[in-house]
Amino acid sequence: MNIPIRTLAVGTFAVGTDAFVVAGFLPAMAASLGVSPAAAGQSVTVFAAAYAAGSPVLATLTAKLPRRPLLVSALVVLGLANLGSALAPNLAVLMVTRVVAAFGAAAYTPNAGAVSASLVGPEKRARALSVVVGGLTIATALGVPLGGLAGRLLGWRPALGLVAAVCLLVACCVRAVLPTLPGNPRVTLRTRLGALRRPGVLPVLGLTVLGMAASYTAYAYSAPALAAVGITTPAPMLFVYGVGAIAGNLAAGRATDRWNALVVLRSGYALMAAALAALALLAATGATIPALVGVLMTAWGASSWCQTPPQQHRLIGIAPDAAALLVSLNSSCIYLGIGLGTALGALTLPAVFAVGAALAVLAIPLTAARTR
């Protein structure tokens, strides 16, 4: 893949680190703010909900803007919002800054995906999308564990300050390498949401919501959830989760191009259900087998992030003329699923692994929904 696409992926790395880094230092942040881990974890829910609601609105408002300044501005907003989060004196202020950060992320991620798809031919589209989404998966492999490490060594506030610095640095890189690209024709919000009426779109988007909810029921609460299986230091396990996420995302892009999206999705959901069910069984029995937990975390990561390339590929195949619009809606649904999963996780602690496994099982038959 060419340098602009890889640079866009670095931008999604910054977005992913910002979105998920809380999982690495959730207990410390909760203690500092004087709230429970479940309450602090709702900062992930608020971020995801604001992203899901803001993405179609921002896509409408910014449609005519040239792509390069739009992407750079989105990263700058994200960086400044993280500075605000780092300085937040209480949970209420933190929630506000997470909403602003979500708007920056919502303006960046779907446009980065659509731009990457426009820079290559149709035969390489899924791989280009997987590279850009790969920035999010690399963030789970490196950004989140490193954020957790920085949180333990420096404190959670300096850790968020480092995330802000990364966002601003990547904004400069995107400005330097991305070619000049025009904006798109203005599409009203009503027309944008009207794309949901296209045959086949709703089943795909509904599956995105359910699949991501299954993936993220436990993720924000991975520290207390892993403690139930005898893992008191979550950073190494979050790292192997991220390694699996990278492998699953890249393999999904190639497998979708070579075979078809449904094979990838069904295999991924089956693997996710098996991995989460096994973790739930370990938690229920009180067994402590670190090597097995590492394998299961890797499988969970791979299955979580193998979903996005085939789902985006399906949507673009349904309506190539509305690719940017549908990728934007899918991005909203990704974060809607993350928000719902995180909210459900707060309600079902400590049974989050079992709940995630049940949702993954439910997703398997829904892949058969007609998309034409």
Outline the structure in words.
It is a single chain. 81% of the residues lie in helices and 0% in strands. It contains 16 helices and no strands. The chain is globular and about 55 Å long.
Radius of gyration (CA) equals: 19 Å
Shape: globular
Please tally the helical runs, counting DSSP H or I stretches of 4 or more residues. 16
Helix content: over 70%
| pLDDT < 50 runs, ≥5 residues | none
* Secondary structure: number of strands: 0
SSE succession: HHHHHHHHHHHHHHHH
Biggest pleated-sheet summary:
none
State mean pLDDT (0 to 100 scale). 88
Pairing-aware structural class of the strands and helices? Answer: mainly alpha
Which CATH first-tier class would you pick? Mainly Alpha
Properties at a glance:
372 residues; mainly alpha
